[in-house]
């Protein structure tokens, strides 16, 4: 699974990215409620001109990738419980699980992603919430059936298993090839519109010299 950032602009319509600072204390799980959309589709929908809903989320995941659409240090409107301090909307990272394609693979990716996020924060599965916990909406609806949240329990167990067995590898960014004058000089990683690549490889291929000043942590490129 690839993890990439593609942030919606802060001026996005319907106040979908209000950029209120957030120190998250939980992670909230959703299903998209759309059986045919991919993660890329959901990301596009956030900036689609015909979308008139004040609803957003932080991360959406499908069978091949996870896309971070709003920085995790800002709030998103996903919990349906208003904007009070301490609400799900103001304190929880919203993760949307896609319903299209290979759902078993998507669910496994979601569990890996969430386990990696818990691990990074030193949290356990007690930090996980359903959308239902904030507003009573039956969401993530694919984890609910016959009046029971059996799928939710199973999901938390899957996350817990990955957390305890270390199965939490997530590749950050998209690997890209960096060419200078048609010749490959380095590998890079594309993340939120910026390519990260070794400065030296690119500069030297262009005939420049590179000096690193450790004291000021500066890369000086001269030609
Ligand atoms: Zn939801």
UniProtKB/TrEMBL annotation:
Keywords: Cell wall biogenesis/degradation, Competence, Hydrolase, Sporulation. It catalyses: Hydrolyzes the link between N-acetylmuramoyl residues and L-amino acid residues in certain cell-wall glycopeptides. Residues 13-151 form the N-acetylmuramoyl-L-alanine amidase domain. Gene3D superfamilies: Peptidoglycan recognition protein-like. Its EC number is 3.5.1.28. It is an enzyme of class 3 (hydrolase). It comes from the Bacteria. SMART domains: Ami_2. Belongs to the N-acetylmuramoyl-L-alanine amidase 2 family. This is N-acetylmuramoyl-L-alanine amidase.
């Amino acid at each position: 699974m690839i993890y990439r950032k593609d942030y919606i602009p802060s001026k996005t319509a319907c106040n979908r990215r209000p950029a209120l600072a957030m120190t998250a204390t939980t992670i909230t799980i959703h299903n998209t409620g759309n059986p045919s959309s991919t993660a890329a589709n959901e990301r596009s929908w956030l900036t689609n001109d015909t979308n008139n809903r004040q609803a957003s989320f932080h991360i959406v995941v499908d069978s091949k990738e996870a896309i971070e659409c709003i920085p995790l240090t800002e709030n998103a409107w996903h919990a349906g419980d208003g904007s009070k301090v301490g609400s799900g909307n103001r304190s929880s990272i919203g993760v949307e699980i896609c319903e299209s394609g290979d759902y078993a693979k998507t669910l496994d990716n979601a569990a890996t992603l969430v386990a990696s996020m818990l691990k990074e924060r030193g949290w356990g599965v007690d930090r996980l919430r359903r959308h239902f916990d904030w507003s009573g909406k039956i969401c993530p609806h694919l984890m609910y059936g016959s009046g029971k949240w059996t799928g939710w329990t199973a999901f938390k167990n899957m996350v817990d298993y990955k957390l305890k067995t270390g199965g939490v590898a997530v590749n950050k960014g998209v690997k890209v090839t960096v060419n200078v004058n048609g010749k490959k000089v380095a590998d890079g990683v594309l993340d939120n519109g910026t390519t990260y690549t070794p400065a030296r490889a690119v500069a030297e291929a262009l005939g420049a010299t590179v000096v690193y000043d450790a004291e000021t942590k500066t890369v000086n490129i001269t030609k």
